Amino acid sequence: MKLPSFSRSCLAFTRLFSLALAGCSGVALLTPAQAAASQPPNLLIIYADDLGWGELGCQGSKDIPTPHIDSIARNGIRFTQGYVAATYCSPSRAGLMTGRYPTRFGHEFNSVANQTGLRLDQRTIADRLKPLGYATACVGKWHLGAGPDYRPTKRGFDEFYGTLNNTPFYHPTNFVDSRVSEAVRAVPDPDFYTTDAYTERSLDWLERNQSRPWFLYLPYNAQHAPLQAPRKYLDRFSSMADERRRTFAAMMAAMDDGVGRILAKIRALGQEERTIVFFIGDNGGPTQSTTSSNGPLRGYKMTTYEGGPRVPFLAQWKGTWPGGRTYDLPVMNLDVLPTIVAAAGGKVAPEWQLDGVDLTPFVTGKVSSRPHETLYWRYGPQWAIRDGDYKLVVSRGGGGPEPELYDLAVDLRESNNLAGRMPAKVKELKAKWDKWSAEQAEPSAPDSPAKAKKAAKQNKKKTAAK
Known about the structure:
It is globular, with a radius of gyration of 23 Å. A ten-stranded mixed sheet has the order 7-6-5-4-8-1-9-10-2-11, covered by helices on one side. The chain has a four-stranded antiparallel sheet with strand order 13-14-15-16, covered by helices on one side. It has a two-stranded parallel sheet with strand order 3-12. The two termini are 45 Å apart. 31% of the residues lie in helices and 16% in strands. It is of the alpha/beta class and 466 residues long.
């Protein structure tokens, strides 16, 4: 763009003055590359949908190659005991975005259509980073409310490209591109495939925002059912006899290719060493509906056995965090927010009441204790507490309402119930969980539309009163 003559004159004077000042002071001006390097780190969160714990090469999978996702573990850290704060969908995302247990603010179940969402008095990662000068975008599946006030562009994100609800289809009819309009529309292109489209928009957004510190939240809807994939990916797995597994593998290939292209773009922009990358599953795999494997773990999505909340959890920050390591103490998706705020030079205020912690001191070896001594889950009648290596759990697929006790240090499969032999430990952990549960809010985003309407009105009143 051609500058007006007055602006050009001022700009020329400013440059001459700056050069003179630098010469007098003996201080060299920063080059564009040096200026970029002095910025706070970027943040990329890739959130995979319904990806089982055992479905990556770095997690031990043999039948579906995932070289690009695996590279995050190779260049960074694989958290062998990475958890999410809820065992499915919207509550898991609410925990990630806020750094708080979603049960603290009633987000125990999925939000319903336009009626509810992430409570308006809760602040997202994007909300926390905007005052620090970050460009922010959400590209993918939001699932934290579709009403006007709940949308990403009202929750700290400059830009949104994706689906608002839990729309599993890979050629959706309720798509939003906020650069065009906030209106929900059908995708007209018959060859549109969400995984590829989310990758392309992410690449475009990174190019447009390379001069600022940025936060890109990329919640792919892969590997959620229904199993759908383009021919170009299906053809890679023509030798797979099981049609469902073949389609699942093709979907994985699309996501892995996308991750590879995005990581390559970050390298091409010269930003790899100042970009924190997280790759996390939103919950365990629903094995029966998609073939997604949770490896040796018992349970699956929507259960409180390990197969529900324990997920693939990888991260890298080249040059700052160690590379090619495993971290074997429990961490949670709640830790992402305080980690990036601290890395960006911000401060976590006590009134935020976060449950997550800054992971940097732990992964760099400055702190040797556990990031979390105790972790909690509540999902309706199902619940669990992990205290040290002991876990007390009531879960679907278990023995009923009586809690079961497992020592995860020696019983990852949760097959040896110790409750009958260790009643004192059962009593101790149950008392801890009861105390924590009593501090949580009543569910305000249930799956019942009638209850959801009532909860939405209550939330609106609470927000207005603040």
